[in-house]
Amino acid sequence: MEVFFTTLNLVLLVTLAAIYVQLYRDLPNKYTASLLVLSLALLLYAGTSNPVVHNVFGFHPRPNIGAFVFLPDFFIGLAILVLLYQSQT
User: Fold this and answer.
1) Cβ atoms 83, 39 nearer than 8 A
2) How high is the pLDDT of residue 61?
3) Rounded to an integer, what distance in angstroms lies between the CA atom of residue 88 and that of residue 19?
């Protein structure tokens, strides 16, 4: 489940970052720059929290503690969906 949610978050954040880059090109100001920085920070989080990335670089996986392993990624995914929805309206 964690691999699914972190990968989904990564895909959604790439989309969100592309939208914010376009928005910043059209309207360069501090607010759109901060949205772009926020999406890039979340993109880095999603990339580094993916268990596949941990295995590729040889790090030990996090201990399996049930639903608490993927719940933070699920909630971040919900926040990303809200940002995507807000950027489309």
Assistant:
1) yes
2) 67
3) 9
Alpha helices (H) in the chain, listed in sequence order = 2-26, 30-49, 51-56, 71-88
Q: Percent of the chain, pLDDT > 70? A: 93
Q: pLDDT: is 30 or 88 the higher one? A: 30
Separation between Cα atoms, residue 61 and residue 30, nearest integer Å: 38
Q: How far apart are CA 60 and CA 15, in angstroms?
A: 30
Estimate to the nearest angstrom the gap between the alpha carbon of 28 and the chain centroid.
Answer: 23
Q: Where are the domains of the chain?
A: 1-63
For residue 24, give the DSSP letter. Answer: H
Interatomic CA distance for residues 21 and 43, integer angstroms = 14
The pLDDT tens digits of the residues spanning 57-80 come to 888 766 767 767 778 888 999 999
Phi and psi based region of residue 80 (left: phi greater than 0; alpha: psi -120 to 50; beta: remaining) = alpha
